[in-house]
Specification:
Shape: rod-shaped
Distance between the termini: 153 Å
Strand content: 25-35%
Number of helices: 1
Number of strands: 17
Order of helices and strands: EEEEEEEEEEEEEEEEEH
Oligomer: single chain
Length: about 375
């Protein structure tokens, strides 16, 4: 069989098959079979296929069907509908879906390999700094089924964020900030909240936790479901100029609306244990200097008994004065005498000294030997 080779019509150096011949045959390595090179589309003009080897020997290996549709060089910007490595989804693969706006990663979790992941790594770092994203399938060592984000510096784990398959999650690292990027270098396992905008209202079946200034001091604050705000603060200003501190019930709003009561209660004892008490303390004056004064319990309320500590006195104002009992039917008793209503004496000569003594004894104000 003979072939006719002619110059191309545009006089470009090359060879051309005669009309009707659509394939160029090349013998294989042992000259037993032909490799046919055949155009796969109809052309509207003469076209050229140029191979540039860069003045060096090159090999091109094609192991499957391929489509070359864009610039795949290191300076190109190719885009793909999907890129896979291995068999999806049992093999390791990366897939991107533009239409859905999602990116999916498939990782092999075959027998003997119950974890898989990928990492963002600083290749130039001698300290092996990297962020590793891992997916654990079933139990992996001491860790349950989870998705982990590990950050390593110098090959050592410095922080881990975990999302467990059972719905729980945790952070393991030095400190964690919400609206806060600086931390006390001496603290560990500290959750730091920066001041933000306090919520205007409560949320159903929820409590809100945030930080806000109160008396120029940032305070941990809770907003309860009913909108009540609880501020935790021991000192409302600088130690050298302390401000007044108050614990208050919730204020009322609207017309003729009563404010909320404030209840102070101790913890509840169980069984026949000693009942818990409410104790009010004061500071006792000390010597001149910067040493903190001692705290002393002045009043104890326990088991229906109000007890004043020694040297704790009761003072009254001198303008209006104070009543003990605001109605004659209220009962009073002194020195463990049975409380009674206001006692009545006959007027004029009908009242004797014995009547007065009897009245005082009834109130417990005196007794006869």
């Amino acid at each position: 069989m003979s072939y006719l080779f002619n110059l191309l019509p545009d006089s470009t150096t090359g060879v051309k098959l005669p009309p009707g011949r659509k394939s160029l045959g090349l013998w294989d390595t042992d000259a037993s079979h032909l490799l046919r090179i055949t155009p796969g589309s109809n052309l509207t003009a003469h076209r050229s296929l140029t191979w540039t080897t860069g003045d060096a020997d090159r090999n091109v290996t094609i192991s499957g069907d391929a489509v070359i549709s864009q610039d795949y060089s290191t300076t190109g910007t190719p885009r793909f509908g999907a890129v896979g490595v291995g068999t999806v989804p049992t093999g390791a693969a990366f897939h991107g879906y533009d239409a859905a706006g999602t990116v999916s990663v498939y990782l092999d979790a075959s027998t003997g390999n119950n974890s898989a992941g990928f990492q963002l790594r600083n290749a130039a770092s001698t300290a092996n700094d990297r962020t590793l994203f891992s997916r654990l399938f079933s139990t992996h060592g001491s860790l349950p089924d989870a998705f982990l984000q590990d950050h390593r510096v110098g090959g050592s784990l410095v922080s881990r964020t975990a999302f467990l398959a059972n719905g729980n999650g945790y952070f393991d690292g030095l400190n964690w900030g919400l609206g806060q990027t600086t931390f006390d270098a001496t603290g560990t396992k500290v959750f730091v909240i920066g001041n933000g905008t306090a919520p205007a209202a409560g949320l159903a079946n929820a409590s809100q936790f945030y930080s806000k200034d109160f008396g120029s001091i940032a305070c941990p604050t809770f907003k309860m479901e009913d909108g009540t705000e609880i501020i935790l603060n021991q000192n409302l200003s600088t130690a050298s100029s302390p401000a007044f501190a108050a614990v208050t019930g919730r204020d009322a709003s609207g017309t003729n609306t009563a404010g909320a009561n404030l209840t102070i209660q101790p913890g509840q004892s169980t069984g026949n244990a000693t009942p818990a008490s409410i104790q009010l303390q004061y500071t006792a004056a000390g010597s001149s200097g910067s040493t903190a004064q001692s705290l002393v319990t002045g009043l104890t309320f326990s088991n229906a008994l109000l007890t004043f500590a020694d040297a704790v006195n009761v003072a009254f104002n001198t303008t209006t004065g104070t009543n003990f009992g605001t109605a004659t039917g209220q009962k009073l008793g002194f020195w463990n005498a049975t409380p009674v209503v206001q006692q009545v004496l006959a007027t004029g000569a009908g009242a004797t000294v014995d009547n007065v003594i009897s009245l005082l004894q009834t109130l417990g104000l005196c007794r006869q030997s």
